[in-house]
Design brief:
Blueprint lengths: L1 E5 L9 E7 L6 E2 L4 E6 L4 E5 L4 E6 L6 E3 L3 E6 L2 H6 L11 H5 E7 L9 E7 L6 E2 L4 E6 L4 E5 L4 E6 L6 E3 L3 E8 L8 H7 L8 H4 L6 H10 L17 H14 L20 H4 L9 H16 L2 E9 L1 H18 L6 H14 L6 E3 L2 E3 L6 E3 L1 E3 L2 E3 L2 E2 L7 H16 L13 E5 L18 E5 L3 E7 L2 E15 L5 H16 L2 H5 L2
Parallel strand pairs: 20-24, 24-25
Antiparallel strand pairs: 1-8, 2-4, 2-7, 3-6, 4-5, 6-8, 9-16, 10-12, 10-15, 11-14, 12-13, 14-16, 17-27, 18-19, 20-23, 21-22, 25-27, 26-27
């Protein structure tokens, strides 16, 4: 029986790849899931495993060939055909009894989520030689959106760390190797343990003589005028990949003398010189991927949207009286406390129906109006601000909203949010009041067109029916994209929110 080996799914918007390296040749015996070849796209490198055990009968796409998704790469002879070829295969040396007792299992990068292609290894909880249990946390990865814990797939001993702390790994990279079974009882050798976490040294010229660089890398080197000696390869056996060439080109550009061209404007102003006695008391820490992404997205929002903020204030006594009257019964029935957020979510949902452009977004030359409300709720975490989304909030009751917000808040602070839980929001609420903020101008969460800022509740004198009284007041701020939302619509939205909060009965009557 002949089994076809085809190009796997390469990812969104990637339609073709280049066959970089074949690890097997025709006639070789292959095991199921053993790596046959490596494909290189313009974004990632993809390894192609054998779909079944057998003999590699034919290679259809040689190294350097460009192939599309689902294209035929090779054919494997399985069953009786593979058995007849077995005598021609060089017999494998017999392993020592102890080596046979344990099976080596790769620890791979888990699914990172849609649109996330790489992560940074932030912390290893285990070191080489440590015994690990099934599902015990080995390390933590940090993406530009969430932190991901990597559990051990088997019980055994951590024999090798392939991605040390601080390294960047792609979505299909190997992180470590665990020896399972009886091998777990034996301590790891001292020499490998000492070097496992260290990055592999660059291949020497003699060692690189037999290494075939990726075809795309060769082309990139020729275009950039670089030789293989000027590029450090990070692929298998020091093989040069396309991204290695890109790094070498970037490094060469940074090292070029300033007189070669006019000095470009720096992305950020250079830091002024610091006295030595002050520098000794400073600490420089690399910005986390999450913080860097927050900074980039906020600056993009300022640069892209025509952002404007309108303000109002709301008398919170109506909500507070309602909470005091029903909070015990509410918690007893629904198992969750009645907070302020559910009132604000419901008030915004009502206002968004009247002013739909605040719930819309710009897509090129179109305006996309959304007939649903996916409410983003900004949550502060130890690593930065994240915005989990309460989907279809307009169809939920007060209890369901409170439960969902509480659940998402806990998951956010624990770094357990999935990508799906932070995508697709149509409007956002940010509560700076929990930190004591009296008034602020929130920044839009692109591509959304509106964000409501809540603030501290403070007793202030106000005039009610011609009398000066003390009431619990809160300032509200609506930041909106003036490209799509007019001033009238923004003010109307905020007034409707104010009316619904000051008289919560309007929410029940859908007024």
């Amino acid at each position: 029986m002949t089994i076809e080996v085809r190009v796997p799914t390469l990812g969104e918007s990637v339609s073709e790849a280049t066959v970089a390296t074949w690890f097997k040749k025709p006639g070789d015996i292959v095991a199921q899931d053993e790596m046959l070849c490596e494909l290189e796209t313009d974004k990632v490198t993809v390894e192609v495993p054998a779909p079944a055990a057998g003999r590699l009968a034919e290679i259809v796409a040689p190294e350097g060939a460009t192939v599309g998704v689902n294209a035929l790469l090779a054919q494997i002879a399985a069953g009786a055909e593979a058995a007849t070829a077995q005598p021609t295969q060089q017999p494998a040396p017999k392993a020592a009894p102890k080596a046979e007792e344990g099976k080596m299992t790769d620890v791979m990068v888990p699914t990172l989520g849609e649109s996330v292609t790489e992560a940074t290894v932030s912390t290893w909880f285990k070191k080489v030689g440590d015994a690990v249990a099934v599902d015990e946390m080995l390390c933590e990865l940090e993406t530009d959106k969430v932190s991901v814990e990597v559990p051990s797939p088997v019980a055994g001993v951590l024999t090798e760390i392939l991605a040390p702390e601080g390294s960047t790994v792609d979505a299909k990279a190997r992180l470590a190797v665990v020896a399972e079974g009886a091998a777990a009882a034996a301590p790891a050798p001292a020499a490998p343990a000492a070097t496992a976490a260290a990055p592999a040294p660059a291949a020497t010229p003699a060692a690189r003589a037999d290494v075939e660089d990726a075809p795309a890398a060769k082309k990139a080197m020729a275009e950039a005028g670089l030789t293989a000696a000027e590029v450090t390869g990070t692929g298998r056996d020091g093989r040069i990949m396309k991204e290695d060439v890109a790094r070498a080109v970037a490094g060469k550009a940074e090292a070029a003398p300033a007189v070669a061209s006019a000095v470009p404007a720096p992305a950020a102003p250079p830091r002024a010189p610091v006295p030595a006695e002050d520098a000794a008391r400073e600490e420089r820490v690399k910005m986390t991927r999450l913080r860097a992404t927050i900074a980039r997205r906020l600056k993009d929002a300022q640069n892209t949207a025509a952002m404007l903020t309108t303000y109002n204030e709301v008398d919170m006594s109506g909500i507070m009286d309602l909470r005091n009257a029903y909070k015990d019964a509410f918690e007893k029935k629904h198992g969750v406390k009645m907070g302020f957020m559910s009132f604000f979510v419901k008030a915004c949902c009502h206002a968004l129906k009247e002013v739909p452009e605040v719930n819309a977004e710009i897509d090129g030359g179109d305006v996309v109006y959304k007939n649903y409300v996916h409410m983003g709720v900004a949550v502060g975490t130890p690593s930065g601000l994240v915005v989990p989304v309460v989907r279809d909030a307009d169809q939920m009751g007060f209890a369901a909203i409170e439960k969902k917000i509480a659940e998402l808040g806990v998951r956010a602070r624990d770094g357990k949010l999935s990508m799906a839980e932070m995508q697709g929001g149509s409007f956002t609420i940010s509560n700076g009041g929990v930190y004591g903020s009296l008034m602020s101008s929130p920044i839009l969460n692109p591509p959304q067109s509106g964000i409501l800022g809540m603030h501290k509740i403070q007793d202030r004198p106000v005039v009610v029916n011609g009398q000066i009284v003390i009431r619990p007041m809160m300032y509200l701020a609506l930041s909106y994209d003036h490209r799509i939302v007019d001033g009238k619509g923004a003010v109307t939205f905020l007034v409707r929110v104010k009316e619904a909060l000051e008289d919560p009965r309007r929410l029940l009557m859908d007024l």
